[in-house]
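Hello again,

I reread your note about wanting to compare the complex against the isolated chains. To keep things tidy I'm splitting this into two emails, and this first one only covers the full assembly. Below are the input lines as submitted, including protein chains and any nucleic acid or small-molecule components. They are followed by the predicted structure of everything together. The single-chain runs will come separately.
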Amino acid sequence: MSEEQKVAIIACAGMDKSLGSVARACAFKVVEELRSEGSVLVCIPPLVAGVKPHSEWIKEYPIITIDGCSERCATKIVARIGGKIRGRVFIPQSVQKHGLKPKASADIGPEGEELAEKIADETALLVDKILRK
Amino acid sequence: MAIVKDKVGVVSCSGEDLPEGTISRIATRIVLEKLRPNDTVTICLPLFLAGSEDERAFARVFPTIAIDGCDKRCAEVGTKKYSGKPVATIVVSEIMQKYPYLKAKSRGKLSAKEKELALKVAEEIAAKVDEVLERKKRGDSN
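Full-complex prediction:
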């Protein structure tokens, strides 16, 4: 493993679209279950408000952004702050790839859960790839 | 002629850091979808913070209530910084003190108790929406 021991995961977590909720569920799965040792979750509102440790992690760790729609808010915000983006996940693309459709923003339903798990698996591999470099 | 109905913007912290953030998010959806669907709209906080002019313009024109999970008050701070001061802020961790038997433990799926807590918070938000609209109707700007 390289000197970079962790990867920061930043999901858009947008509330008005179900894909934002999938992005959020996927991020939890990676940081809490799949790569709990190798990743940290950076929350956008405290990051923009300058709250530690989120504002420090963004400078310290390589970043994977997870965006729920074409606005790509997570990526835009990280780019504006000057974080080092090493991987990007775009949920609409994963929807097409896996053919699974989440139900709603408040409850993504079984298909949404399955989709989040599949994307989380792929994101975890991305974490490994970044940490091996 | 179209009549534009007064609406209240509800800006919820996206709540990934603490379980209280998940409660704020679900409570906001309950208000938008069930309790006050005709009186409220949400502003997507990440989009707002990323610089969407539409979202920011809305918060300058319409009254906005910030729903924060904890006393860091990120939704309130963000709204104030990029648009205008929210007319009210509801902090989930403060409401929870009224219901000590309802704990927020999960950042993901909510338990029955957590759903009950989300509903309590939603009811407080709905009451605040009514209050804001009533004030607006009376022509009270504050």
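For quick reference: The longest strand of chain A covers residues 85-90.

B.
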